[in-house]
Amino acid sequence: MPADLQVVDLRSVEPPLAESLAGLLSSVWPDSSQTFDERVAGLLHDWKSYAGPAQQFPRAFVVLEEGQPIAHAGLVPREVRAPGHAVTVGALGGVCARPDRRGQGLGVAVVQASFALVDEGVFPYVLFQNYRDYQPFYEKLGARVIDNRIYNSLAEDPQANPFWADVAMVYAGGNDWPEGDLDLGGPGY
Ligand SMILES: CC(C)(COP(=O)(O)OP(=O)(O)OC[C@H]1O[C@@H](n2cnc3c(N)ncnc32)[C@H](O)[C@@H]1OP(=O)(O)O)[C@@H](O)C(=O)NCCC(=O)NCCS
């Protein structure tokens, strides 16, 4: 783990860091529906009043270089429903390294830090979506593709898959991943 890998508590992000993180995310995903200002606002406010279990607090793993973020992974709690029971997973998103710093282990560092929360018993699973190209990147770190049908019971079309990328993946450590349909109970991330 690089020395400058930091845990950012999303309940209380300082405005300058929110701006530099939004800058990194907007440069990696320029076509996102979220504008720079919306990203800043989200980072400042979305999790301010989080009232869930303290150890599952919403966070981002960020590698900083001279105060600037060069890699990021967001890991926030998300209650999903498998047949017969609800479970709070770690929802992983926004995994990126600055284009000029790729191939230096930073992506692995922020994802490994996220998956470590499962090994430490904070979350039973880390659940995320991604594109086929990146599947081997996550598989090398112990994640696997899941084939549960995924839906959002709160959506206008509750049968539609709220994830938009090619595959859904999970890091489960030593835990058994449930079979059957999975209700994200909200939009994809
Ligand atoms: C995915 C991403 C974060 C990887 O970051 P990175 O810092 O370059 O990755 P690392 O240097 O830690 O790479 C570690 C390993 O992953 C491999 N890897 C990286 N990108 C890969 C890809 N697209 N396909 C397959 N393997 C990949 C590297 O080859 C390396 O493997 P090796 O050590 O065996 O050679 C980075 O490519 C990125 O920001 N991509 C754009 C954002 C994005 O699409 N993120 C979402 C992914 S779902």
UniProtKB/TrEMBL annotation:
Transmembrane segments: none annotated. The keyword Transferase applies. The keyword GTP-binding does not apply. GO terms for molecular function: acyltransferase activity, transferring groups other than amino-acyl groups. Keywords: Transferase. CDD domains: NAT_SF. Gene3D superfamilies: 3.40.630.30. Residues 8-174 form the N-acetyltransferase domain. This is Acetyltransferase (GNAT) family protein.
